[in-house]
Specification:
Blueprint: E1 16-17, H1 22-30, H2 34-39, H3 53-65, H4 81-87, H5 95-105, H6 110-124, E2 131-133, E3 136-145, E4 148-149, E5 159-160, E6 166-168, E7 171-175, E8 180-185, H7 197-211, E9 216-220, H8 227-236, E10 239-243, H9 251-261, E11 262-267, E12 271-280, E13 289-300, E14 306-319, H10 325-333, H11 338-348, H12 359-383, E15 388-390, E16 393-395, H13 406-414, E17 418-423, E18 426-430, H14 438-449
Parallel strand pairs: 3-9, 9-10
Antiparallel strand pairs: 1-17, 2-3, 3-7, 4-6, 5-6, 7-8, 10-14, 11-12, 12-13, 13-14, 15-16, 17-18
Helix pairs in contact: 1-4, 1-14, 3-5, 3-12, 5-12, 6-7, 6-12, 7-8, 12-13
Length: 454
């Protein structure tokens, strides 16, 4: 049996780069005015810094895009010219500088980060993936709270979340089938999901309109079943799909509505399921509100035991859509994809356990993380458009998909090794002979370097 090769280790004086994908991130940053805007803001207590605000924030973006968003992780790059050149910064800060500067920033850069992120998406993509409705295509805007587990820490704002552990409970909004982050708000773990959501929704719709002119469909779960959210949607001229919280409504009443206004969707010896639509009048809304419903009467439980009193399961949805109940319920189930987006920012980018003891600082780091998330998403979506040909055959390196997971983007496009050389004032990136992603990487780089067309 053949044994593995016995390698000898030696050091060479070559400029090798194991994070070549940061060049793509630097190219995307060049398409924005982010660096200039944050560099021109004077912070209280740091009016004339040696290392600019843009260098500090861009360095954190670099760390987040390689999934190491800790202050201490910057030390390995301080003497690495590739990190500096890839991101287009003048100086690489120390971990102490990162910590101190982020503590000073607070929320000074919040609007700049959100706006530049939105404009970058608008100026880079060809369009967003819509959902089809009877009144035409609409861009889904999914808004949801996701707890961040920071248990066994004494960070400011850490408290009991609805998941039963200590942490934070930020609310995030994702646009399109691709799941670009439009807006987020960092929250204490104990804060109720509806507290502050009306203002958050209005702000989110403003940023969403920066990205796309297509009609928007707002999707919310039952924790945000509030008439004030519907009012915002009506005033903003967007459609909505919100799962209802039946609260004190009687299940027997809904069963009668189902038998009267609905149609049998499924029936067997165990249960009967009705689907349909009805309307409910609300004192704060002039017109009756449409409600789609799915009501199930269960006569035999999972163990085969006949129930003396049938169990009634109710799912109802506020919706402005004219589609039938089946389509509305299907569209709401697609809202569950936002859980995948939560997982990507928490797990793939390792942003769940935030590094600072200060609430405002962690809020800034997560907001920067949303910017980094969108740039990684842009890299992944761009890779789907490019194919490479080997021996006159199209080679597929990953299964065909509508979206690349962030972890996949980091592994395939960010953690790609190269050799960097300088000849006659020009820098060259050379990939190995067996680098399978080099053609796709080059195509993405050329597209990102193309002039921005407003």
């Amino acid at each position: 049996m053949t044994k593995s090769t016995n390698y000898k280790i030696e050091n060479i004086n070559e400029n090798l780069n194991s994070h070549t994908g940061l060049v793509l991130i630097g190219s995307l940053l060049d398409r924005t005015n982010f660096k200039n805007r944050v560099a021109n803001i004077h912070l209280h207590g740091c009016s004339d810094p040696v290392i600019s605000n843009s260098d500090v924030l861009t360095s954190m973006i670099g760390l987040q895009c390689i999934a190491t968003p800790m202050y201490s992780a910057i030390e390995q790059f301080r003497n690495t010219p590739n990190f500096i050149k890839s991101l287009g910064i003048d100086y690489c800060p120390s971990s102490a500088t990162l910590r101190q500067r982020f503590d000073l920033v607070g929320n000074e850069f919040d609007h700049i980060i959100k706006e530049e992120s939105a404009l970058l998406i608008k100026n880079t993509i060809d369009g967003l993936t819509p959902v089809e409705t009877l009144t035409g295509p609409k861009i889904p805007l999914d808004i949801d709270v996701t707890p961040f587990d920071n248990s066994k820490t004494k960070k400011e704002g850490v408290s009991r979340t609805y998941k039963g552990y200590d942490g934070f409970a930020p609310i995030l909004s994702y646009l399109g089938g691709e799941g670009y982050i439009v807006n987020l708000e960092f929250r204490e773990g104990k804060q109720h999901c509806q507290n502050g959501t009306v203002e958050f929704l209005m702000e989110t719709l403003w940023y969403a309109n920066l990205i796309s002119d297509l009609p928007v469909l707002v999707r919310l779960d039952s924790g945000n079943d509030c008439i004030d959210n519907i009012k915002v949607c009506i005033e903003s001229g967007v459609d909505w799909l919100i799962k209802r919280n039946i609260r004190k409504e009687k299940k027997e009443d809904w069963l009668e509505i189902a038998k009267t206004d609905g149609e049998i969707y499924f029936s067997d010896d165990r249960s009967i399921c009705w689907r349909g639509k009805t309307t409910i009048e609300h004192e704060d809304i002039d017109e009756p509100l449409s409600v789609a419903f799915e009501i199930t009467e269960i006569k035999i439980d999972k163990k085969g035991q006949k129930l003396l009193i049938p169990e009634i399961k109710i799912d109802t949805y506020w919706s402005s859509l004219t589609d039938d109940a089946e389509k509305i319920i299907k569209l709401y189930h697609q809202h569950g994809e936002s859980e995948q987006f939560h997982s990507e920012i928490k797990s793939d980018m390792d942003l769940e356990r935030l590094p600072s003891q200060k609430f405002e600082t962690n809020a800034l780091i997560l907001l920067i993380g949303s910017f980094s998330f969108n740039m990684l998403r842009l890299c992944g979506q761009e890779s789907l458009k490019i194919t490479q040909t080997i021996d006159d055959k199209t080679t597929i390196l990953r299964p065909l998909a509508s979206r690349r997971r962030i972890r996949t983007v980091i592994q395939d496009l960010i953690y790609i090794a190269s050799h960097i050389t300088k000849k006659a004032r020009d820098f060259f990136i050379s990939f190995g002979s067996y680098s399978s992603w080099k053609v796709i990487w080059e195509g993405i780089y050329k597209n990102f370097k193309a002039p921005v067309v407003n």
